[in-house]
Design brief:
Elements: E1 13-18, E2 23-28, E3 34-35, H1 42-49, E4 50-58, E5 64-71, E6 75-82, E7 88-90, E8 94-95, H2 97-110, E9 130-137, E10 145-149, H3 157-173
Antiparallel strand pairs: 1-2, 2-3, 4-5, 4-9, 5-6, 6-7, 6-8, 9-10
């Protein structure tokens, strides 16, 4: 099974090895873009120094949910849902320390989040289904990252959507 391009969603990708930088990445034969590769240091720096991750998704029914993962002494995950009528439903924070390292590896190395198309805010109409991801890094080693998009512009977003919406379903079962 081929790796799917995070930009166009096609599976016609070819792995390659850069003999100068000694890194491995992929090239999409459809959109002719490289992904999953940089100088080999920047991606690891992002993984190692990620201290906050936030995802807000606006759904078709105009409700939304927000997931925040914050690394301090421990790592906690907070989530809330904004209902159609504007009321906010918050859930108890969850200890995410044991899962955090695997989550960051998945985010950067499997979902290729840094290669997602970042839509200008003007391309997203108010109330339209969309998402916004924000990431910040320890000691401002790297600049903050904001990625805005729609499900159809980020093929791997479906994975995050399924992961996080399942948490809301479990939280509602436990109420």
């Amino acid at each position: 099974m081929n790796t799917i391009c995070p930009r166009c969603g096609k599976g016609d990708t070819i792995p390659f090895s850069d003999s100068v930088l000694h890194t491995v990445g992929f090239e999409c034969a459809n959109c002719h873009q490289d992904f999953g590769v940089d100088d080999g240091i920047l991606m690891k720096k992002r993984e190692e120094n990620l201290i906050s991750f936030s995802l807000t998704e606006v759904l078709e029914d105009h409700s939304s949910y927000t997931v925040k993962i914050i690394k301090e002494d421990a790592v906690k995950m907070e989530f809330s849902k904004t209902l159609q009528d504007g009321r906010v439903q918050s859930y108890y924070p969850v200890d995410f320390t044991a899962e955090f390292d695997k989550f960051t590896i998945m985010l950067f190395e499997s979902l290729f989040v840094m290669d997602w198309n970042n839509l200008p805010v003007t391309e997203i109409k108010p109330g339209e289904p969309c998402f916004k991801i924000q990431m910040s890094f320890e000691d401002d080693v790297l600049p903050k990252v904001t990625i805005r998009g729609k499900e159809e512009t980020a093929p791997y977003f479906k994975v995050l959507h399924m992961l996080f919406t399942s948490l809301f379903e479990k939280g509602e079962e436990n109420d």
